[in-house]
Predict the 3D structure of the following.
Amino acid sequence: MTTQFNAQVYQNAYLPEGSQEVNAIMTITTDSESDGQTGSRISGTSGTPRVFGVICDTSGSMEGVKIQSAKHAIAKVIELLPSDAYFFIVTGSSQATLLSGLTLATDSAKNTALAALRTVTANRSTAISTWLNLALQQFKLMPGAIAQALLLTDGQNDSSDLNALDKALNACENQFQCDCRGVGTEWRVSQLQTIARKLLGTADIIADASAMEDDFRAILGQAMSKQVSDIALRLWTPQGAKVLFCKQVSPEILDITNKAKAVSGQIADYPTGAWGNQESRDYHFCIQVNAGNVGDEMLAGRASLVYSQNGVETKVAETRILAIWTDDEVRSAKIDRTVAHYTGQAELAQVIHEGMEARAQGNFEVATAKLSKAVQLSDESGNEATMKLLRKVVDIEDAATGTIRIRREVRKEDEMALETRSTKTTRINR
Amino acid sequence: MKNCSACHEPVDVSDRFCETCGFLLIKDSSAMATFQALTEPIFPNCQKCDSINLEADGFCNQCGFRNPIHRDRFEQILQPGFAALSDRGIRHSQNEDCFAIAQLADGRSIIVVCDGVSSSMNPGMASQSASQSACESVQESLKANLDPEAALVQGIHQAQLAVAKLASISKGEPPSTTIVAAIISDCHSNLSNSDPSNSRISSVQVTIAWLGDSRAYWLGSTPETSCQLTQDHSWCEDVVAAGELSQEQAERSPQAHAITRWLGVDAEDVVPSLVTIDLAGPGRLVLCSDGLWNYASGVPEFYQALHHPPGTEAKVIVRQGVEFALRCGGQDNITIALLELQSKGPETS
Ligand SMILES: [Zn+2]
Ligand SMILES: [Zn+2]
């Protein structure tokens, strides 16, 4: 199976005199079709093995309907695993247990795992670091595989485990990707987001335990669609330039600026994880360059995707980010609409975060101002999913002008849903 | 194996067009020498940071700056009286104009000037592809004894195909360009029937075809004997011709200079305007892009801008013409092609 990568850059290259900041959106799409087009393809060794790890919280707080639903949903995932995939199950409380070691998803292996799953009970406290470390051990048994995990928890990590969790996350980074789900409302949004962001995964709330099965099924579907892993976004910048940020902005905002690995003084690799066919993601680069004179043209960046396998590096889909200095104000004043759109989406996520924080601190004045801006921005950009979440936290009189009233009584899960999902962006209509 | 001079992808020596970008691959070695290197940097080291690590298209791999490439300013001199020069000007970062000139063994000359439309994708490639395709096609047609008008129509058709081919590899607004092309044939008017004084005057036949607002002018020995030979396909020209607005009113509109015909897949009307005139020398035929005529639109001003004493070499005149446009602001790319037509009376008999 080959995966064809296509990339396109959206930007207004024209800058006014003295300006140093270059913004560009790179849209990357994948395709499996071999239509004979000049290819930018990466061939994963046919059928790169996929490993799916299930990491499930079994601390005492899971007792009751939550653990029952989790066991039920995990059983469903095991049943659905394709027979050519590998899997393992880690259960965790104050320490981690390998419920089912890494194995090919044969019928008999599945049955053994299902039997083990039935014996699971919930007790003791929560030390997520131990769960992740055990999962990492399992993933390391199959280097080169497409390594993905699903982590389910319902509570906060023990405060005694915080340092250990940091260490575990550093060890796991770039080793496997992990989607994180919080069930109920006793877990901390920021904690789960930290884990997900570090491990290039998503974080979300499962307020109602009965929704778990569908969600797990979707996560497994996504994971099994991946064809190639460890794809890096390589960015060359001119000498003296500085990358102010590099963010994934679609399907959701993920700042990967600090994940850069220097290849040389002018080249850095940003991890993007595994890719499936027919995927599409957008990345926003903001590069500060040395200002040129009017009439100068500069290559402000060269972005490509890099895949290494057995020490052989393949570079595809190279695109250019330009800067052209002009004294034509009409040209330089124009902001590319794609750049403008994602700048707006990033601001939307930011004001929701700040607004909800202010609200939690009882500062309703600031919260109203921030959430009013959020309502305006989601209205403008047509981000209906976020608007729907906002409606549960504020009463909207007029979305266009951001005339809102903050609700004093809000369900905890609605608050948490808005916080976890505020980074989901819409795409621009091209 | 060689590489396409436009997109640098490898091309097969037997190909007529680049498979990747549709660029016309010139086989004639002298023309190739002129155009092959057009997109390459002029200097071996970066003019900003002195690095020698330059991309094939001039971008510096160290500091990122785009270095001057031959395409920024290129000149071709076929005869002391026949030369062309194209310059990127001051305000544009790239030269999106192009020209192609040629002279056949039988003495007929061909001039093509194209001005890529800035808002389209790859305008520079469009003008380069169009001018070269048209020029090559016209040469072939003339050698095959097509009459000049038919040869020009065929040439512009070929240019349209070349530009349309570029569209398949460019996203966004399809590449487009203006074109003005001329064939100059000597035709000694030895038919001195009634007026004996006419027998000493020879005339040349000039056939011109165009789409858009690149122009042809005839410069006689005085402003009075000079004239503009083409009429722009522009919004301004169209509404004035239709009697809807006066020249003055139309000029004031922001869309005055928007062109109404061009080459490209998105063009509605690719039927060129055609004109054939007999011109009596001595004089100079000039084809140019709007980067020049914008600063000297009327015939007297244009005459003034390019006036030089008889015997001045064509290369000197085109260089001075470009200098003139640069001094006026160089807001656009500037391209000038000039052919001097001598007064060649019949040999004393
Ligand atoms: Zn090519
Ligand atoms: Zn340099």
User: Anything to note?
Assistant: The radius of gyration of chain A is 23 Å. Confidence is low (pLDDT under 50) at residues 35-39 of chain A. Chain A has three domains: 2-39+229-333, 50-227, 337-421.
